[in-house]
C-alpha cells in the first residue's frame, strides 16, 4: 500500500462539510469562531478542522481528544466543531476506551504525515509545535496520560476519571469539574489539581453542571475551553486574561463557576 493511500485509510474514510453557523468576532471565544468547518471520519480518528484549510495562509494548532467511556466523537461533535471554528485541527480518537491515549498519539503521528504529504489538504497547514490534549471522563484521564508526551503543550481534562498520573505531566493544566457531577465528583478533580503542584494548574468547577452537561450542546464548557486553548496554543493574550492576573476572568465569573483555584505556578 502506498504512503498516500495508507494515510487515507487512517484519516479519511469520509469527508463531510458542516453548514456554517453565525461566527463570532475573531478575538471572541464565547460564540463559534470565524471558520467554516469540515469533518473527516477515519478508521482511528475523526478530524474536525477549518473547511478551507488547504488554502489557509497559516498553520493551525492541534487538539487531540479522548471520549468518555462508551463514547464516540459524534457525542461531542458540537464542542469539537466549536474548537475547529476557532482555527484548531481537532483529532478525536474513535475508541470508546481511550484511557491509554494510544489513538490520541496516533492522531498526532497521522497529522504529522499529512502535513508532510503534498497530496493532503493539511500539507504545510498543521502547527505541530502547538498541540493540546483534552477529553471527557475516561478521555479526561487520557488527556492527562497523553500530557506526558513531549509533543503536548497544554492539557484540559474535563471531569477526568482516576486512572492517570498527573505527576508525569510537565505542561500547564486546566482541570474542569461539574458542581453536581455524581460520577466524577469535584473532589476527585481537586485531587488531581492538588497533586499538580509542579506545573501551572487551574481548577475550575462549572456551576450547575453534571457529568453529561458537556455532551451534545457543550453549554458553559465551550467558552472557557476555547479561551484556554487560544491562550496556550495561539498565544492569544486577550483569552489569557481569562486565566491570568489578580482579576482573571474565570476567577470573577461566579455566575459560570462555583469554585476556581490557581496554584502558585499559574501565571
Automatic annotation (TrEMBL):
Pfam families, A to Z: PETase
Start and end residues of each PET hydrolase/cutinase-like domain: 83-237
Record has Lyase as a keyword: no
Residues annotated as signal peptide: 1-25
Entry-linked InterPro entries: AB_hydrolase_fold, PET_hydrolase/cutinase-like
SUPFAM superfamilies: alpha/beta-Hydrolases (SSF53474)
Domain of life, source organism: Bacteria
Keywords: Signal
Protein name: PET hydrolase/cutinase-like domain-containing protein
Organism of this sequence: Dactylosporangium maewongense
Amino acid at each position: 500500500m502506498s504512503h498516500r493511500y495508507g494515510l487515507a485509510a487512517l484519516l479519511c474514510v469520509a469527508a463531510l462539510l458542516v453548514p456554517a453557523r453565525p461566527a463570532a468576532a475573531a478575538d471572541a471565544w464565547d460564540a463559534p469562531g470565524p471558520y467554516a468547518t469540515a469533518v473527516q471520519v477515519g478508521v482511528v480518528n475523526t478530524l474536525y478542522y477549518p473547511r478551507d484549510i488547504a488554502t489557509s495562509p497559516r498553520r493551525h494548532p492541534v487538539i487531540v481528544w479522548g471520549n468518555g467511556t462508551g463514547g464516540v466523537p459524534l457525542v461531542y461533535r458540537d464542542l469539537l466543531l466549536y474548537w475547529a471554528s476557532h482555527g484548531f485541527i481537532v483529532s478525536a480518537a474513535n475508541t470508546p476506551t481511550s484511557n491509554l491515549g494510544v489513538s490520541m498519539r496516533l492522531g498526532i503521528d497521522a497529522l504529522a504525515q499529512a502535513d508532510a504529504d503534498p497530496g493532503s489538504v493539511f500539507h504545510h497547514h498543521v502547527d505541530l509545535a502547538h498541540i493540546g490534549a483534552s477529553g471527557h471522563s475516561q478521555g479526561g484521564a487520557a488527556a492527562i496520560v497523553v500530557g506526558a508526551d513531549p509533543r503536548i503543550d497544554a492539557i484540559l481534562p474535563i471531569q477526568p476519571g482516576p486512572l492517570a498520573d498527573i505527576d508525569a505531566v510537565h505542561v500547564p493544566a486546566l482541570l474542569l469539574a461539574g458542581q453536581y457531577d455524581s460520577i466524577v465528583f469535584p473532589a476527585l478533580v481537586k485531587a488531581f489539581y492538588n497533586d499538580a503542584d509542579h506545573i501551572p494548574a487551574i481548577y475550575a468547577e462549572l456551576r450547575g453542571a453534571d457529568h453529561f452537561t458537556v455532551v451534545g450542546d457543550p453549554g458553559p464548557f465551550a467558552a472557557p475551553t476555547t479561551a484556554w486553548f487560544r491562550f496556550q496554543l495561539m498565544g492569544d493574550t486577550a483569552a489569557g486574561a481569562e486565566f491570568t492576573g489578580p482579576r482573571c476572568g474565570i476567577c470573577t465569573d461566579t455566575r459560570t463557576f462555583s469554585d476556581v483555584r490557581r496554584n502558585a505556578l499559574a501565571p
